[in-house]
Amino acid sequence: MLIDAHCHLDFPDFDADREAVIARAKAAGVEGFVVPGTIRARWPDVLALGRRDDVTVCLGLHPYFIDQHGDDDLQALDDALAANPQVVAVGECGIDARFSESWDAQWQLFDAQVRLAKRHGLPLVIHCVRANDRLAKRLRQLASPHGGLIHGFAGSPEQAQAFIELGFVVGLGGALTHPRAKRLQRAVAALPDDGYVLETDSPDMPLAGHQGQRNEPLRVAEVCRQVAALRGQDVARVAAASSATAQRLFATGSAASGRRE
Fold it and tell me: What residues bind a divalent metal cation 2, as annotated (predicted)?
């Protein structure tokens, strides 16, 4: 059994065939989906997906969309977390160094969401691009007690270990399938069995050989195969380890009784 620990099934990219996408994923062995929120306007669609038994949801404010976030969105997020106990994490939040013009605003927004995660007793789902070391330093300062997921990890073995020591796991997806990703592939090989989850970031982050195509959760099975090859383990072991970690982190599937009451 596989869990896609990060996929945006609420995005309009799936409006025409969402049920078929889910069916294809299940045919490939994917039984669970973790869907994070990105902007306030999309939270209702995320929460609607969360009514499904096979979908687990998170709510957050993504740094990529920082120009779309309003002055009262943090208060709205606080209220939404209080009103929706099925939400299992704060995210997708984070830092993206490609957008230097919003650097200070990104950190302010991120810090505020870490405080909300602390207040509500939730883990974080963190988007981090070209800022692993700075993010790890900030997480040490903020001391987030519930850990979380460093989504779309693309760093070094040392950076992965730093996040794990802070109580986080790393998300492994399409980036590791590209031949040039040697540093990331070394990190994947060195991870402890409970230090990662598998994800697709659908509809984004296409795997090697699928560039230009819409990504889908079914491809987490291919990610699993490549992770197994890099780690010298069989596919069943990787699937079981990653799914157990996702269940522990997000209270999905058989661990759903651990969701907030």
Answer: 127, 151
